[in-house]
Input
Amino acid sequence: MGWKRGWRRKLTFLFMPCVSSCFSAAEEEQQAQSKKGLKKQQKEAEKAAKKAEKQAKVAAEQQSAEEDDFAKDRYGVSALVQSQQKLDRTLVRVQDLTPEKADQLIWLRARVHTSRAKGKQCFLVLRQQQFNVQALVAVGDRASKQMVKFAANITKESIVDVEAMVRKVEQKIESCTQQDVELHVEKIFVISQAEARLPLQLEDAVRPDGEGEEEGRATVNQDTRLDNRVIDLRTTTSQAVFRLQSGVCQLFRDTLTKKGFVEIQTPKIISAASEGGANVFTVSYFKTSAYLAQSPQLYKQMCICADFDKVFCVGPVFRAEDSNTHRHLTEFVGLDIEMAFNYHYHEVIESITDTMVQIFKGLRDNFQTEIQTVNKQFPSEPFKFLEPTLRLEYTEGVAMLREAGVEMGDEDDLSTPNEKLLGRLVKEKYDTDFYVLDKYPLAVRPFYTMPDPHNPKYSNSYDMFMRGEEILSGAQRVHDAQLLTERAQHHQIDLEKIKSYIDSFRYGAPPHAGGGIGLERVCMLYLGLHNVRQTSMFPRDPKRLTP
Amino acid sequence: MPMYQQGNSCSSEHALQNGEVDPAVKALEARQDEILRKLYELKAAVEGLAKTVTTPDADLDLTVSSSLSSQSSTAVFTGTTDLDALLGKDLGALRDIVINANPAQPPLTLLVLHRLLCQRYRVLSTVHVHSSVSSVPPQLLSCLGPRHPDSHSRHMFQLGFTLIWKDVPKLQMKFSVRNMCPIDGEANVARFLFKLLAPYPSDPALATLVDSWVDAAFFQLAQGSSEERAAALRDLGSALGRSAWLSGPDLSLADVACYCCVLQSGSAPSAPASVRRWIKSCENLGCFSHAKTLLL
Output
């Protein structure tokens, strides 16, 4: 700005030596330069003087501060924990801070969720997974002014060790999970400092996408969350979701083990696409290529032919489907079951549905805290089911759809909108979010599906639905090599490619059936969430390979 | 009592090589025929006796069966009802009646009607427990009887009867969600189910009489105060003093409803003599006996 204003003057100043006599030009130039220089020097001197003054003031303050800081041993940034000493100190969990612990002096380690100074006090919210508690650093006989200031300046997400007195509160602290107590801090040390600028704010990440008072306030979009997954997973909602998911896996294993199933592990690098079709990932395998398994189907069945009778496996499933939908991932966790039966494949359906019901009951009875936490951000209807599970036949489903105005042929497959509509109709009539649709038309099922014994248009196959979305596709398998060959030929499948599969049934194979579910999809539907990426820790889809 | 095969289909299988029948086998067959004849006579006698108990003023008439044998093919109601006319065209799939009931108040009337329906039609019966209820006593799980051996093929049945034990304030029935609103209350569902068995009497006065007894059963006997109950029992007593059943010579919905409500209210022992006699008549009909076990 200064240059612009005085440019005429400056230019004339520059020109002037040229206009005046030549022999005094150099002299005058020197004069001008020294004038400029002087001004510059003056300015610099002023600046330096001001700086020095300021520094002296700060130093003086600091000195006086240090002199007055009686609490300086009770706070600060700790040295990096390199296992210097083995302290035998009990750290109390935030979720255990209840009125029973009132007036006890305790240590705990938590993250600083928020810190806010208010005059001579600093309010902190300390967070540990799904739980948080209010903490107070107040100037008094335990804390000094400097300590309060230090606490207020601790960056969000830093991990701190705190020694505090637990005190009961008169009024419930509505904003925290521990509502009946607060901590009066006597010592606070930073164990691991977080950088000042966070890529996303946790309060924004748990805010419901809402109307009313929440409208207009920031929320975090899915891509940002997934790009900064480590921080996003710290939210109370994420903690609850993945704890529930862990519960699903555990209930699956426990229920099946009690029923006498054996857990198996199947190979994921395979030589041929098991289901046929282009949706397989290829990997280079030494001098040749191999594929990543689309499902453990082939191996589950081989285990049955190997007399393991009832098996299940939990492992990754890879589908190279270029589907960018709310419910598809390229890699997900498959929970698969296969079982030999005595006379009727319904024995297997009953086993599978009973397992699902035990999982639902286990979640209903033991994970209410997690379900409520998720509902705070993503409200939904609680999951309802019947015991024993409702089983409808395909023809009944078609009749219900036709009654609702849908036009479809007897042997048509159900489109996704029709599946959703049927789910709603079933919910209206039977009030259940989980049911089985049995006896699908043979034409729309894979070649290894056993045809119905009385009606060649139908098959011994079934799908299971949660909240109107398919979670399991299963069937009685063809266990006769001859029939299997005929069915494969009917579907125009190259017999060479499935030779080893057909061979498994040549040396005595029991009748068997099974099915598989996706862990992420089941969790998403149980909780009433709308995108499977919310229930996958590090999701993989056609557009995402990191983190 | 099981029905034994008549006819000598066995004898041809026991023929010897030379075409003659072994005399020992013949003697055995003669004994078998004798025993079968005696069994038939016994059965007829018992059935006859049963008639006198159930319809004291009528002759030994075999057109109204007592259903002592639960597998009897002759049903209590032999009126003409058309399922297609009542429930809508059969779209090639099971017509499933869904009843949501609270396990704290088992609907005895509906269970009796279920038995009657099973005599008349091929009914697929299933019992479910809804997730809103944590558990139910075992007799409520088996209240619709043993599982039908063909229950894996739903389309082979004419009617579905699906009972769901659920935490509901009032009993509710759902059938065709598109065309029918839900039916609330045990009395109303009972009326609907009864009409699948037999039409109401065509005489409007008689039809109203049946309805007023059904109302008396649910509002006074089951839910009423002790005075209302006593008054209803007195009315029952005088009505049953005049005829064998509440709305004339035949069993009707009025009897089913009143019997169940009397049983549930626990007033049977203190009822007038005519009522106690009528209770015994009801219990002689196989379809009523099951209801009593559910009260324990």
About this structure: Residues 204-293 of chain B form a domain with the Glutathione S-transferase Yfyf (Class Pi); Chain A, domain 2 fold (CATH 1.20.1050.130).
